[in-house]
Amino acid sequence: MPDRKSVIPVLGYVGAGAAVYPIDDGDPLYEVSVAAALPQGTVGAIVRGDSMYPIFEDGDLVAYSGKELTADDALGQTCMVRLEDDRMLIKTIRRGSEPGLFTLSSTNAPDIEDVRIVWARKLVIRISREFWRQF
User: Fold this and answer.
1) Range of the domain at 65
2) Consecutive sets of 10 residues in the chain, 135 residues long: mean pLDDT of each?
3) pLDDT of residue 56
4) Which terminus of the chain, N or C, has less C-beta within 10 A?
5) Is residue 92 part of a domain?
6) Distance in angstroms (rounded) separating the CA atoms of residues 79 and 81
7) CA 69 from chain center: how many Å?
8) Cα→Cα distances 118→69, 75, 115, Å
C-alpha cells in the first residue's frame, strides 16, 4: 500500500478580508503532517479575516496546489490568488469589466472589482482552526 501521508509546509498567511502579503524568507512557519496523499508541491497558508465565512474561518489552514493557473483558467473557482500589489487572498474569481481584469467574490463581504491577478492556485484541502495544530 502506498504511503498516504503528506507534509504541508505552511508558508504564511492568506487574506479572507484582511490584507495579507507573502512571507518569502525561504523557511515555512510550520510543517503539518496529514494522513492523506496530497499532490506534489502542495503548500499551506493560514486564513486571516472572515470575508469567506462560513466556508473558511480566521485561523483555518488551507493547502493549495503548487501549480499556477491563469486567472482565465480559474474563472468560477475559489482559489488562492496573488494580485499585482502582492496581496494574497482566497476568493472566487469572476470576469471583470474588461479583458485582463477580474472581480474577486467573497461569501461575506463586498466584491473586489477589476483587479489584475498574477496567479491563481487551486485549493487542495482545508483543516479547521480547531484541529490543524494537533497534527
Assistant:
1) 6-134
2) 80 82 74 91 92 92 93 96 92 97 96 96 93 66
3) 93
4) N
5) yes
6) 6
7) 13
8) 9, 14, 10
pLDDT at res. 1: 45
pLDDT of residue 23: 63
pTM to 2 decimals?
Answer: 0.87
Number of domains in the chain: 1
- In order of 15, 32, 55, 57, the CA distances from 49 in angstroms are 6, 21, 12, 7
In one letter, which amino acid is 47?
V
Backbone φ, ψ for residue 31 (5° rounding): -125, 125
- Among residues 124, 128, 123, 118, which one has the least CA distance to residue 88? 118
Q: What is the CATH number of the domain that holds 70?
A: 2.10.109.10
Q: Do you know the residue count of the chain?
A: 135
| CA distance linking residue 63 with residue 135, whole number of Å | 14
Indicate whether 1 belongs to any domain. Answer: no
